[in-house]
Amino acid sequence: MLIIGEKINSTRKMVKQAIADKDQAFLQKLASDQTEAGADYLDVNSGAFPQEEVELMQWLVEITQQASDLPLCLDSPNPAAIAAGLALHKNGRPIINSITAEADKFPKVIKLVKEHDALVLALAMGDDGITKTTDDRFAVAKNLIEDICNQGVQPEQIYLDPLIQPVSVQNDFGIIALETIRKVKQHFPTANTTCGLSNISFGLPRRADINRCFLVMALAAGLDSAIVDPLDNELMKMVKIADALLGKDRYCKNYIKAFRSTEKK
Amino acid sequence: MLIIGEKINSTRKMVKQAIADKDQAFLQKLASDQTEAGADYLDVNSGAFPQEEVELMQWLVEITQQASDLPLCLDSPNPAAIAAGLALHKNGRPIINSITAEADKFPKVIKLVKEHDALVLALAMGDDGITKTTDDRFAVAKNLIEDICNQGVQPEQIYLDPLIQPVSVQNDFGIIALETIRKVKQHFPTANTTCGLSNISFGLPRRADINRCFLVMALAAGLDSAIVDPLDNELMKMVKIADALLGKDRYCKNYIKAFRSTEKK
Fold first, then answer.
1. Which of the listed CATH numbers 3.90.330.10, 2.60.300.12, 3.90.870.40, 3.20.20.20 matches domain B2-264?
2. What is the pLDDT of residues B159-195, one digit of tens each?
3. Where are the domains of chain A?
4. Hey, which bits of B26-109 come out as E strands?
5. Backbone angles phi and psi of B242, in degrees to 5
6. Which residue in B has a C-alpha nearest to residue A168's C-alpha?
7. What is the model's pTM?
8. Looking at chain B from residue 219 to 258, which residues have their Cβ under 8 Å from any Cβ of chain A?
């Protein structure tokens, strides 16, 4: 699976403070730590500073790329901030995080996806917000994928996020996300799925345990990618085990290799 | 989910030795430990002694019932051993482990299920052994459930076991089991599913981690029960988390309660 490291996100208190202080060393350590831990992409978000989001996105992209060769997942609801990040992006194929079916933003983000031949994280929501049943959620996801493809973007470029809401708020929020992932993979086998994992455990104790358990369920439902904490060793171990159990690790070679290297430590 | 404690099984070396030595205290401790840990049923198996299986099944049932009030899962390929255990069973509704579509055994076991109004663990195999694709496995499961129901047994009495084989042997053995569980629950919503979990990890290092991960996947696919080690605290925690994530724990109350009681220790 594609691991998008979640750490460099200004909605996290310590990161917000580090950005306010221009604490480059702290932020670059988040970049290098996640890279060493096995992330495939690094998420970069400066949205907690709406007045300066564009400039701060530029700064974050620059300092992150000094510390890591990974491609970035440019995370903003503001197309201007995404565009600023894309202009500086230099390692591989960027991910635009995100597009939705909202009428005012859709064409602006599609334009950026096409100009930069980027991957795009597509949130299953439109102008009416987040739907409350599996059927409605999938209908939004299906329309969004079709709308994006109708603009000349390939399904392989799309990472559909079913939008995970906390299971502590409504009992079936986990099931809605899992079933949406399953249906998207059935209807669009070449499109990808992703999610912001940690929302599932909001409001509950021992969130990391819940996140890991839900990630395993989502991988079994067909999840291709997730925005997660790659510094969570237990979670990264679960990903390797899940790959083996889902037939993605021939003769369980990667699992056995990872296990042996852990034993040596 | 229904937890069937796996410990009192003569195919395990220490248990075989304890049975040979008539070490009642050792075996009764397995019974009481599993009961305290939250098992719903205790599996009892004397099959490693084919010459004395019937008498040893009687002895195991008696000493287990002295140590635990739980109902038993009488585990034998030999209908005579099952019958002997059923005659002594006194706590609740027994589980017969197991019935298959094999022509010589099917009518004998069905007779016992009906006489004792028992639950029955149904293995998805027939005279041709274990099938190698999801479609074939489900076809065997479907026919077996229909054959059992045609004898006047209710679907609610059936616990279909898809038969889990090691993922180290064939890459898609995990997927075959998961898909069979999912299809059985779709086609027979009132029938139950179960599995002997630990087969999945045979031949691999760190088996407990793999077992837990696969249990989570199977629960998300619709698993109702499993034969597991209830003394594995991490596994029992996963079951509680999975219940919450799958909408079976209103407001996550059981999860929060379990977490708090753990914190006090």
1. 3.20.20.20
2. 999 999 999 999 999 999 999 999 999 999 999 999 9
3. 2-264
4. 41-45, 72-75, 95-99
5. -60, -40
6. B251
7. 0.94
8. 220-221, 237-238, 241-242, 244-247, 249-252, 255-256
